[in-house]
């Protein structure tokens, strides 16, 4: 019967203690745990034989050490010794010493286990982060291999730095070095201007579980981060003036800013414009070639930055520098492939691509231009001088065009001009301006031409955007033929496109 009462008492105490612990905070939880252990010792003494009390107190001491560390264990050992002396009336120094030794031993074991657990958790954290970083690098590499488009590359880089499944920084901004190396130009940024916007973005990403490619596509479609982009793209940082960005570009080393320097005018400009307080600046550097900088910060969650963050972001910045250099080289080769080697105008391949562009689905006009009696010019003066005429004529055409007009060398002595969103009457004015300027220009040996000067004939055609643009070219070619047949050095128009 005594054992039954004792078992029931233990179960009741355990139930009540755990019920209270469920609703309590950490400190109260530990206190309840210790007090319930002490209560069980007292119940055992009241309901069973007191002879077990001396060793049952060890459970109370162990519980106190686990809950309140070394100092708690020493207090528990002292109180247990005092309680044992009061209840038994006998002085037992060896038992009291054993209590203190037991408390110290439990604490030592607890400390060792805790250190092992902390070390394990630390290694697990490092392995988890390294795995995450490798996944980010893999995703970025894959995305970069899919395109040489600079805009897409920049979006990939910035998104990988800020996405929750990426490196997880709140904001990232890229500034690229100008061609002459005299300034840094803000190109692109991702993240909020204010912290409140950041929480909204995180909620949306969390709810929809966007991946890296999904986020990039979403940014392109919705033109998100527009406000931050506008602010950054409006920034041009001259490198002649002393500033923290100039220091980074000159040294080639990353810079960790813990607090804005009030003596640095540029830093204060960033602080007032973007709220940039604590941030990291990483140079985009590859094989000694500096192409710009990337700036990251944690505006939203205010997570402190340290040199570990610098080590994390630097490999990605290097990868970005490599990708940007490759994209630049690719775009340079592409431009060369689309340019006429002699006149530096766009070539026929570029013209074919332009006819497939979206602007040809809107109203536009075409001008075809041909040099009059050019075979006679080449036969009389030679092809070398004929090439000089083509280069000079290309210059006259270029200076006669408006901002959106595009000039191409169509082949031989023929040139074509695309005029987006231009009605026929405006195209005729442009064609007439070109014709008149050519007529008034002194070309080498131009006086030897049949008309005493070098002239051109031009054909104009218009499209409302609904017809096949190649048909519009055919109409312009017919108009050019009419100009040639009706006396040359004139503009003809083909109506009915």
TrEMBL record:
Pfam families to which the protein is assigned, alphabetical: GAF, GGDEF
What are the record keywords, sorted?
Membrane, Nucleotidyltransferase, Transferase, Transmembrane, Transmembrane helix
Q: Which InterPro entries match?
A: Diguanylate_Cyclase, GAF, GAF-like_dom_sf, GGDEF_dom, Nucleotide_cyclase, Rev_trsase/Diguanyl_cyclase
| MF terms in GO | diguanylate cyclase activity
The EC number on file is 2.7.7.65
PANTHER family per the record?
DIGUANYLATE CYCLASE DGCM-RELATED (PTHR45138:SF9), REGULATORY COMPONENTS OF SENSORY TRANSDUCTION SYSTEM (PTHR45138)
Q: What is the lineage of its organism?
A: Bacteria, Bacillati, Bacillota, Bacilli, Bacillales
* Start and end residues of each GGDEF domain: 362-496
Q: NCBIfam families given for it? A: GGDEF
Organism of this sequence: Jeotgalibacillus terrae
Quote the protein name from its UniProt record. Answer: Diguanylate cyclase
Keyword Magnesium in record:
no
Positions of transmembrane segments: 27-43, 55-83, 95-113
Write down the superkingdom of origin. Answer: Bacteria
């Amino acid at each position: 019967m005594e054992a039954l009462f004792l078992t029931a008492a233990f179960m009741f105490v355990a139930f009540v203690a755990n019920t209270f612990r469920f609703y309590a905070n950490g400190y109260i939880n530990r206190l309840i745990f210790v007090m319930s252990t002490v209560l069980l010792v007292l119940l055992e003494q009241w309901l069973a034989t007191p002879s077990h009390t001396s060793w049952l107190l060890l459970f109370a001491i162990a519980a106190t050490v686990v809950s309140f560390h070394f100092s708690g264990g020493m207090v528990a050992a002292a109180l247990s010794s005092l309680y044992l002396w009061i209840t038994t009336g006998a002085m037992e120094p060896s038992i009291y010493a054993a209590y203190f030794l037991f408390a110290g031993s439990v604490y030592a074991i607890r400390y060792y286990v805790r250190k092992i657990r902390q070390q394990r958790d630390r290694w697990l954290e490092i392995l988890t982060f390294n795995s995450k970083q490798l996944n980010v690098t893999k995703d970025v590499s894959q995305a970069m291999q899919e395109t040489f488009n600079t805009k897409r590359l920049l979006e990939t880089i910035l998104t990988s730095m800020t996405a929750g499944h990426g490196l997880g920084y709140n904001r990232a901004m890229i500034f690229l070095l100008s061609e002459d190396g005299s300034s840094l130009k803000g190109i692109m940024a991702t993240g909020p201007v204010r912290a409140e916007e950041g929480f909204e973005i995180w909620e949306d990403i969390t709810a929809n579980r966007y991946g890296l490619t999904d986020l990039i596509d979403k940014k392109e479609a919705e033109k998100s981060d527009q406000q931050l982009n506008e602010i950054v793209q409006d920034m041009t940082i001259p490198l002649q003036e002393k500033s923290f960005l100039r220091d980074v570009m000159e040294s080639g080393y990353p810079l960790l800013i813990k607090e804005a320097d009030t003596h640095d005018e540029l830093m204060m400009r960033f602080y007032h414009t973007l709220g940039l307080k604590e941030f990291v600046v990483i140079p985009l550097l590859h094989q000694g070639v500096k192409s710009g900088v990337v700036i990251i910060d944690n505006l939203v969650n205010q997570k402190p930055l340290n040199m570990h963050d610098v080590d994390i972001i630097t490999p990605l910045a290097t990868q970005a520098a490599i990708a940007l250099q490759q994209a630049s080289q690719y775009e340079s080769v592409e431009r060369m492939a689309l340019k006429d080697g002699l006149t530096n105008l766009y070539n026929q391949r570029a013209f074919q691509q332009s006819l497939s562009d979206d602007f040809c689905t809107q109203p536009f006009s075409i001008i075809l231009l041909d040099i009059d009696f050019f075979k006679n010019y080449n036969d009389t003066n030679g092809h070398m001088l004929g090439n000089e005429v083509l280069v000079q004529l290309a210059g006259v055409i270029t200076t006669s065009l408006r901002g959106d007009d595009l000039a191409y060398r169509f082949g031989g002595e023929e040139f074509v001009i695309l005029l987006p969103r231009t009605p026929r009457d405006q195209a005729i004015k442009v064609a007439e301006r070109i014709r008149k300027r050519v007529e008034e220009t002194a070309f080498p040996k131009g006086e030897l031409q049949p008309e005493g000067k070098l002239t051109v004939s031009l054909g104009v055609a218009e499209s409302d955007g609904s017809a096949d643009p190649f048909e519009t070219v055919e109409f312009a070619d017919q108009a050019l033929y009419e100009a040639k047949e009706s006396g040359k050095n004139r503009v003809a128009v083909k109506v009915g496109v």
